Amino acid sequence: MTEDLSPAERYAAARVRAVEEATALAPFRRMYDFDLDPFQIEACRALEAGKGVLVAAPTGSGKTIVGEFAVHLALEQGRKCFYTTPIKALSNQKYADLAKRYGADKVGLLTGDNSVNADAPVVVMTTEVLRNMLYASSQALLGLGYVVMDEVHYLSDRFRGAVWEEVIIHLPESVTLVSLSATVSNAEEFGDWLDTVRGDTEVIVSEHRPVPLWQHVLAGRRMYDLFEESTDHGGRGGAKREVNPDLLRMARQENQRTYNPRDRRRGKMVREADRERERRSRSRIWTPSRAEVVARLDAEGLLPAITFIFSRAGCEAAVQQCLHAGLRLNPEEARNTVRELVEERTAAIPREDLHVLGYYEWLEGLERGIAAHHAGMLPTFKEVVEELFVRGLVKAVFATETLALGINMPARSVVLEKLVKWNGEQHADITPGEYTQLTGRAGRRGIDVEGHAVVLWQRAMDPGALAGLAGTRTYPLRSSFRPSYNMAVNLVQQFGRHRSRELLETSFAQFQADKSVVGISKQVQKNEEGIAGYREGMTCHLGDFEEYARLRRDLKDRETELAKQGAVQRRAAAADALEKLRPGDVIHVPTGKFAGLALVIDPGLPAGRANGHRGFEAYDGPRPLVLTAERQVKRLASIDFPVPVEALDRMRIPKSFNAKSPQSRRDLASALRSKAGHIVPERHRKPRAAAADDREIARLRTELRAHPCHGCDEREDHARWAERYHRLQRDTRQLERRIEGRTNTIARTFDRIYALLTELDYLRGDESTVHGKRLARLYGELDLLASECLREGVWEGLNPAELAACASALVFEARQADDAVAPKVPSGAVKTALGAMVHIWGRLDALEEDFKINQTEGVGQREPDLGFAWAAYQWASGRDLDEVLRDADMPAGDFVRWCKQVIDVLGQIAAAAPGENSTVSRNARKAVDAVRRGVVAYSSVG
Asked: Is 702 exposed, middle or buried (0-12, 13-18, 19+ CB in 10 A)?
C-alpha cells in the first residue's frame, strides 16, 4: 500500500511511526502476539499522557490489557503499581499471570490471609487490603504511582461495594487510577464522578464483542436461533433484531396445550408426568435432560461449555446424571493426563480426608471431562477444575453464577437452564445485567470464531422476554456506599470531623443522589409556575379567596373525620351485638349474599373470648356459622352485619345435627322457616349524623357564610382553581421533602454514627480515644460489637479453641435462616461468652434505634450468628475433618471459606486487643494457627 502514497504522505507516515516508536506503548504492544483493539490503544495512550482512565467493555474483550499497561508504566518509571481485585481467586490468577510475564521477583500478592513478596514493585491484592493500608497510612504506599481497580462495578455490591469508593476517595492525588468495568449504562456518570474526585479521567466505552455471540434456544431435539438470521449480527450491533417466528409460534402452541379441562381420568386430573409424556408424544417441544444437552453440544462441536445452574446441589446432581448416562468426553490419553495433574495438585491432602471430600467421585467426573464448580467446593478442587477447563481437559462444567464474577474461564458455549434464580429472599427473574455477565463467558478470543449462548426451553417461556434480556446488554452502576463505625473512627482520627464530613459528601452515592435532585428541582420550579397561575385564576374581587378556600377545606376535612368516626362506632356496635349471639338464636342477616333468615349454629368466638373476655389478640371480630332458610351452612363475617343484629327468637338445635348432611340441613331449615318465617325484623333506624350537633362544623359554616367571597357569582369557578392550587401546592411540598431527604444523606448518616460513637466514648471532638483506636483496627460488619467485647473483657480467659468459636459469631451468616432450631454451641466458658456477646449486641441495637441508625440502609450491627461456633470450636480443638463436617452439615468449601474468615477476624482481634495483662491477643494468634491446618491450610496461594 505504501507505494501508492506520495513522497510527502510516506514522509508523514514515517514521522507518525517514529513518534509512536518513542512511546512506552510501542514496546508494550510487541509483548503480545496479537494487535491491540482501538479501545485498548486509546486507553493506554490516555494513561501514558498522565490521565486516569475508566474502561467499560464486555466480558472477555481484553480490558485487563489496560491494567497490564499500567504495570508496564510503573516498572518503566521506577514506581509501584497495586493491582486490586474483588476476590482472592482472581487475585491468585492475576498474580500468576503477572509473575509469568515480569518475573516472580517483581510481583507480590497480598490477600486477607496470605503475603507473598509484599515489597515488590507490583503487588496484586484484594481491594479490602488496599483500604486497610490507606487507613493505616502504610509505608508500602510510598512510591505508589498506579492503582488498577479490576471489576470496579463491584461498588454496586450491597455488602462490600463501599470499599471501592473508600479507596477511590482516599488514594493520594499523585496516584493514577485505572478503573476496569463491565459494560454499564451510566459509565459517563461514573466518569464524571471520577473526574471530580480524582482529576482528569478519560472514559472509554466499548460495546464491541471481539468474538460474536449467537443466541439459541434448545427445545426437544432441535436448536433454534433466538433471532431471525437476517437480523442477527452475533452481538455486533446493527439493525433491530427480530425474534425467530418459529419460537413465537412454538410458545403459542405450548400455551394452548398446557391445560385442557377435558383431560380427566377416573374423575381426576391427569397426573403431571402423564401430561408431560403426552406432550412429548404430540410435539417435539420439551426440556432436554442435562446429559442430552451435553451430548447435543458435543455433537454440534460446541464444547467446552459452562452450564449455569443456580443451585449447588443442582450442579453436583448434573455431574452424576451425566456419569450415569455414560457420557465420556475425554479419550484415554486425556484421562491419564487428568489423573496425573489431579494427583499432583492434591498430593498435600491427607489420604484419610480424600474420602470425606468426595475425591474419588470428583476424579471420575474429571477423567470423563465433566465437573461442577461452586462455592461449596474445596478451593483446591475448584482451582483444579479451572486449570483443567482452560487446558481443554474438562469440557462440560456445571456452575453457579459465582463463576461469572471475574474468574477467567472462557468457553465456546454457555448454557442457562432457567431464567429464574433465588436471590436470598425470593425466586426472581435474572436481570439483563446478570444475563450479560453469564453469557459473556461464551467465545474464547483467539480460539473461537464465535460464541454461543443456549437457553433451555421451559414451559411458559416467553421468547420476546428472552430477546429483551439478550438485547439489553448494559445495566446501571448504583453506589452502595454507607459510612460504618470503623470508617468514621479512621476518618476522624486522620482528618477531624469537619473534613471527614466533606470527604463523605464526595462519594459516588452522594454524587448520584445530588444528580437525581436536579430533575426533581426542575419539577418544583415548574410546579411553582403553575401555582402562580392557579393563584391568579382564583383571585376574587370581593376578598381573599385563598382564605375562603381554606375554610371550605377545613369544613370538608371535619365532615370526613366525623363520618369515619361514625363508621367505626357502627362497626364496633355491630361487633358487640355479634358477640352476644348464642347457638340457637334466630337472626336476620341484613345484607350480603346470604341476607335473610338464619339460625346461629356457632357464634364464631375464639377460645378465651367468650363471656366478654378480651385476652385474644389476633382478632378481627366474630364469624358466626349459620344455617340459612335456603339450607346453606355458611361462616359469615362482620362485613355481613353493617348494623347491630338481635336474636328474633330461639330454637333448639338437635344433637344429631350434622352440617355436612344435606338431609340434616333440610330438616333444620324447614323447622326454622316454620318457627320464624312469619317474623318481620324491625328496620334499623339510621342514627342522627354527628355533624348535625358538632360545634366545630357549626362555627366553620357560620364563618363561611359570613366571608365576602361567599356571595361571589363566580364562586364555584374560583373554588375549582383553588382546589387545583391546593393539590399542586401539596405535591410540591412532597417533592421538596424528597429533595431534603436526598441532599447530604451520607453526611447526615455520618453525623448519627459520630454522635453514637461520642456517646460510647470512641470519639471526642476531632480525636479518637483509646477505644476508638482499637475500633480503627477492626473491619467487618460487626466491628463495633467486636470492639465492645474487647472493651468489656468478654473473651478474657478463653483458650484458643473457645476464642475461635466466639470469633466465628462475628463473621458467619447462615445461607438460610433457621430460627426453629437453636444452634449447637460448646458449653462452659464459650456459652457464657457467646451469651454476653448477644447481650451486648442487644444493647447496641437499642442504642442504634435511639440514634436512628437503620440496618435496612446498610448501616448498623446485625445480630451475631452462632451457627458456626461448634464447628470452629471442634476444628480448632484438633478434631478430624470427617467428624467436623458431619456435625456441621456443611460442604467442605463453605467450611474452608468460613474458617478463613475466622482466621481473618482473629488476626484483627490479635492486633486490636490490649497487650498488658490480657490473654486475648496471645490466644487469638494461637487460635489462628489452630484453625489454619489441614484442608484450611492447603488451599492454594490465596
From this structure: exposed
Is this prediction's pTM over 0.85? no
pLDDT attached to residue 281: 44
Does 733 score more than 90 pLDDT?
Answer: no
Helix axis angle for 829-850 and 783-791, nearest 10°, is: 120
CA distance 491 to 497: 8
Residues 627 and 598 sit within 8 Å (Cβ to Cβ) = yes
pLDDT one-digit tens code per residue, 456-478: 988 778 888 888 777 765 677 88
Residue 516: all three cell numbers together: 437525581
Alpha carbon of residue 231 to chain centroid = 35
Residue 421 CA to residue 437 CA, distance in Å, equals 14
Instruction: Please provide the distance, in angstroms rounded to a whole number, between the alpha carbons at the two ends of the chain.
Output: 52
> Dihedral (C-alpha) 534, 536, 541, 546: value to the nearest 10 degrees?
50
Question: Is a pLDDT exceeding 90 seen at residue 503?
Answer: no
Helix 869-876 to helix 881-888 angle, to the nearest 10 degrees?
170
Distance CA 418, CA 212 (A): 23
Strands 122-126 and 107-111: parallel
What is the radius of gyration, based on Cα positions, of the chain? 36
Q: How high is the pLDDT of residue 262?
A: 47
d(CA 122, CA 76): 12
Listed as own residue / partner, the contacts of 95-102 with beta carbons closer than 8 Å and 24 or more positions apart are 95/124, 95/941, 98/68, 98/71, 98/122, 98/124, 101/31, 101/68, 102/71, 102/75
The phi and psi torsions of 917 (rounded to 5 degrees) equal: 50, 30
Spatial distance between the Cα atoms of 906 and 901, rounded to a whole number of angstroms? 9
Cα gap 815→672, rounded to integer Å: 60
pLDDT of residue 478: 84
Burial of 271 (0-12, 13-18, 19+ CB in 10 A): exposed
**Distance between CA 339 and CA 18 in Å, rounded?**
53
Burial of 863 (0-12, 13-18, 19+ CB in 10 A): middle
Buried/exposed code over 9-40 (b: 16+ C-beta within 10 A; e: otherwise): eeeeeeeeeeeeeeeebeebbeeeeeebbebb
The pLDDT tens digits of the residues spanning 143-200 come to: 999 999 988 888 887 778 888 988 998 899 899 999 998 777 788 888 989 988 888 9
Cβ–Cβ < 8 Å for 71, 222: no
Q: Determine the number of helices (DSSP H) and then strands (DSSP E) in the chain.
A: 34, 26
Which amino acid appears at position 538 of this protein?
M
Pick the closest to residue 421 from 431, 434, 430, 412 (CA basis). 430
Q: What is the spatial distance between Cα 411 and Cα 438, in angstroms, rounded to a whole number?
A: 11
- Packing angle of the helix pair 829-850, 745-759 (nearest 10 deg): 130
Q: Is the pLDDT assigned to residue 285 strictly greater than 80?
A: no
Query: 414 has which bridge partners?
Result: 306, 453
What's the rounded Cα separation, in Å, for the pair 315 and 304? 16
Give the length of the chain: 942
* CA torsion through residues 925, 928, 934, 939, sign: negative
Q: Which one-letter DSSP state was computed for residue 271?
A: P
Around 643, how many Cα atoms within 13 Å sit in the side-chain half-sphere? 14
Q: How far apart are CA 138 and CA 462, in angstroms?
A: 55
pLDDT number for residue 306: 92
